[in-house]
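hey so i finally got around to running the thing on that chain from the lab meeting. sorry it took forever, my laptop kept dying and i had to restart like 3 times. anyway pasting the input first so we r on the same page abt which one it is
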Amino acid sequence: MNNNIDISKINSIIKKIIEGIGSSRGQILQIVDDLRSEHEEYKLQLEKIKKDLENVINEVDELEKQDKMMRKKLAEVSQNFNYYTEADIKTVYEKASDIKIKFMAKTSEENVLKEKRYNLELILKKSLVGIDNAEKVVNQVSIALGYLEGDVLSAFESADKNSEMFIGIKILEAQENERKRISRDIHDGPAQYMANVIMKVDICKKVIENDLQKGLNELQDLKESVKEALKEVRSIIYDLRPMSLDDLGLNQTIQETTKSISEKSNIQIELKLKTIKDEIEPIIQVAVYRIIQEIFNNMKKHSEAKNAVVKLDFGTKYLMLIISDDGKGFDVDETLNRVKTKGNSYGLIGILERVNQLQGEIDIKSVIGKGTTYSVKLPINREVIKSEKRGD
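ok and heres what got predicted. didnt touch it at all, straight out
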């Protein structure tokens, strides 16, 4: 009976906590939205200032040329008073003075705009930091809320409750980070293009009324914007679940992906892939693909590698993925410690968590100046994972 009372009290407390956290999360989300809107407004202001500054710089350059010409003309007049009338001399001096004043005024305007540009760039940087920090808070609150809304009591009753709680939080954290990434991708990509399309539609209507040819040109620009938006949407969908995994299989998907990476990053990639068979479960194939993606993302950002090798092999229980490069290398222990404590390298965190969730193993060896090797061991299907959990 006491246990039931305790559980009822716990449920009541948890409900109140969930309501409080949910309300706070909504308020923080509103703050994040406000920060984003403010950030977009600053970006528009910066774009306008950059355009104004470009125009002013061109005017300053032109006035500087005119000022130099007039100074030469003044020198010529000063040395040849006998050849010029008083009216000519007065005209030259007045024109030179007028150009000088305009030149100085435009130079001053240029300096003011540069100062504004600098200040806005600082504001934008601080704004991004503010948005990032606020999103982290939302992320943490969402994780806590998601976990509390789950089966909390079963976690309390679990024999290994700390481990279960840790795994649950990590899964929720990964889900929340993925949602945030998708949201940001859509906001920065298709959403921007579609906003531009709406604006261009209005422009097209007005332009066509006055000039058909210009209107047709605007429609062509509109078509390009829609194509870019479609391209971005397809890219986001592909990142969520590459259709080529279903259509072409893992081997060819890896070949296509590494070919694209090689073209964009100038990293020469050698592939040594054993042909994947049906016994490799789809969830494991997706994991292999994602791990390859993340490793090469890290490689492009940090390694300065020129060459890389991807090896994929498997047996009756496990597959081995080995990726090595000839980059600058890094201190593995220091980096892993920093990543785990500060969480500032989501790519590496994603690799580690994906491997751990699938009961796999990962070993990273790196030598400064000589490159890095990632060795990943994964079970080929869920039966192996279950047997590992049972300790068979």
